[in-house]
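Supplementary Data S3. Sequence and structure tokens for construct A.
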Amino acid sequence: SEKSRVFKRSLLGTYMLRACIYIAANTGCYAEDIAALSEDDLDRSGPGVMTRRTKTRVVWQAAFWPETWQAILDYLKVRPEPDPVQLKLWQEHKAQRCNVPDEQAHVRTTEPLFLTASGFPIQHRSLEFADDGDVKKEPRMSAVGLAFSRLASELWIKVEGDNRGFGTMRHTFRTICASQLGVENPEDLNRRHEIVNRIMAHKVPGEA
């Protein structure tokens, strides 16, 4: 029934957003990084996530909290099948970011970890065509950003403007690190910066 479909879509969206918020708060990543994740990028017997960040291609390695793992597992119970066309686009886009042929071939066999109720990657491109049939625009659609904005609105939190959307979770992670790691001397501060840079997949100063 229509009510059942609406309920399932809402349930899926809730589980998806919950898992994405946990991953972002846990690791300081952006929605684009989460959208690029496949199950192969997760290490259930090790730290949590082990892959390369989409923007910098720096190794992104971080341990997940138990709550983060649980949120991911809850989502996987309701994860839909991917849309074939969007799946192919996601695979090609991710493969283009790889420099190793074997890695490119492997990426083309994987699926995005997170999907919308329609089976689309949580970040995908929606083509807009001109009257002559040529592509006029190729705007990026972010299901995570839209869901996050709706949640913020329901909580009476303003998210308009730059750096006030889902990307703020990256700054939230830094705040969590500052409160948890603390600073007792300059050596601790340097060590904290190194730890945070590695988890956030920044290029660590002094390293190639």
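Construct B, processed identically:
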Amino acid sequence: DYPIDFGWDKEPSPLFDFLARKSVLFEIKSAAQLTSADLEKSNALVVISPMSLTAEQQEMIRNYQAAGGGICVVGAGAERADFGVRGSLPEISADLLVNAQVQTQVLTKLKSLVPEGPWIELGGAEHVLANLTSIGGGREVVLHLLNYAPKPAAGVRLTLSLGTKLAALAGKEPMLISPDAKSAPLDNVRWKGATLEATVPLLPVYSA
């Protein structure tokens, strides 16, 4: 059901690893198991190898798009897919994880699918992942950072773009909370419109 380099006997697509490293939340779903209810819960859809989809699956995706859903087409047949998409990625380069130019191109296309949604960018720490959770009906957000490196990460650069959905939170003073007894405050905190820029002074290593 995963037509593009996916399977225990194959080399996995670098796209999945790339999205995880860039703190982009995603769920892998087999086209055979995808339902309209699944699509209604999704902010955007990445269609892999669209020419392998059945007529019914293509119609379901077109209905999702007609309702305002963002679609990006990846893999074989991307250039021929009849979805009228705003962005397509005909080929995912094998050097995606090390090619900064390709990474920028992929992220730019994916961001165009959800212009109203929040995005997180981290710099200076290759093995730090982030997860954003909205609480209190959108009155607050919690950004969870986890360092998977074997040693603490210092000077982690954080950029949080709230988008239109959470723009009302722009300008608020962020608070850094750590399991440590003491934690230094965020450095270099500044707002640019609805985008927060800051530096996390230190992220220790935690293991379960």
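The CA atoms of residues 44 and 70 lie 5 Å apart. The first strand starts at residue 44 and ends at 48.
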